[in-house]
């Protein structure tokens, strides 16, 4: 049965780290729209050129562009056994479009990672990524990326003022999708203010339980 997962939560909730771990453990692709956009910026594609200013300002890239990117990505055969979406959907129109894309593809488990705002601000101020390959730095990497050796840098959108703006955008545009999903039998809330390994195991349990409990359903349950 396919493990189709959406990770919700504000910037700094740990979506990327947890999505990465879940994807690795269960052998499904992690699809991070932020990573796809950052790749496009780094390689200088047309999409990257268009998205750069919006991302640096901490605002949202247009729904049509994002729905197109994710729709195409979910057509690839590696998503047939499932996927973890990190950073999409971020608006109600994106969530509605995802329901359409998911028709006939099994249950969609939605996990909302909840973390208090003061903790988010502290985490984002400390966050580093690799300036070369873009991965989130692990705590034990003090100077260089443990994968490619690149220098660790602050994300261009993790400055204090931009972070405050991103949290505002989250409350205004993204929080309403929690409401959109919360009545569904496959919606789960996870306490993200715990050590990463504890979050990983509670998430794993919640997703597998929700997915198997509703796995006989042919279509997305609304
Ligand atoms: P993230 O790495 O998920 O924090 O995303 C970084 C930035 O990419 C966001 O602040 C947005 O500018 C843009 N972005 C990523 N995913 C989306 C999305 N689903 N809709 C609109 N903009 C997005």
Walk me through this protein's architecture:
- With 222 residues, the protein is of the alpha/beta class.
- It has a domain at 3-117 and 183-211: Rossmann fold.
- The protein has nine helices and seven strands.
- The chain has helices at residues 15-26, 33-43, 46-56, 63-73, 92-102, 117-126, 160-174, 176-182, 196-213, and strands spanning 3-8, 30-32, 82-86, 108-114, 129-130, 152-153, 187-191.
- The strands form two sheets. The chain has a five-stranded parallel sheet with strand order 2-3-1-4-7, with helices on both faces. Strands 5-6 form a two-stranded antiparallel ribbon.
- The longest helix is centred in the last third of the chain and has 18 residues, at 196-213.
- Adenosine monophosphate (AMP) is lined by residues 11, 33-34, 37, 54-55, 58-61, 66, 87-88, 90, 94, 157, 166.
Secondary structure layout plus pairing:
Layout: E1 3-8, H1 15-26, E2 30-32, H2 33-43, H3 46-56, H4 63-73, E3 82-86, H5 92-102, E4 108-114, H6 117-126, E5 129-130, E6 152-153, H7 160-174, H8 176-182, E7 187-191, H9 196-213
Parallel strand pairs: 1-3, 1-4, 2-3, 4-7
Antiparallel strand pairs: 5-6
């Amino acid at each position: 049965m396919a493990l189709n997962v959406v990770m919700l939560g504000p910037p700094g909730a740990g979506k990327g780290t947890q999505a990465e771990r879940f994807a690795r453990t269960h052998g499904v692709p992690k699809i991070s729209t932020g990573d796809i956009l950052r790749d496009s910026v780094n390689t200088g594609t047309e999409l990257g050129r268009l998205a750069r200013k919006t991302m640096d300002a901490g605002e949202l890239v247009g729904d049509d562009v994002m729905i197109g990117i994710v729709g195409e990505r979910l057509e690839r055969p590696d998503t047939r056994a499932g996927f973890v979406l990190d950073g999409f959907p971020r608006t109600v129109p994106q969530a509605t479009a995802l329901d359409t894309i998911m028709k006939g593809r099994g249950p969609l488990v939605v996990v909302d990672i909840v973390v208090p705002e003061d903790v988010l601000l502290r985490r984002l101020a400390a966050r580093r990524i690799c300036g070369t390959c873009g991965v989130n730095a692990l705590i034990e990497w003090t100077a260089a990326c443990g994968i490619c050796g690149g220098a660790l840098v602050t994300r261009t959108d993790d400055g204090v003022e931009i972070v405050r703006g991103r949290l505002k955008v989250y409350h205004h545009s993204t929080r309403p999708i929690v409401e959109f999903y919360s009545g569904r039998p496959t919606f789960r809330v996870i306490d993200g203010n715990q050590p990463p390994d504890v979050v990983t195991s509670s998430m794993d349990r919640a997703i597998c339980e929700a997915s198997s409990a509703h796995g006989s359903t042919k279509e997305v349950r609304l």
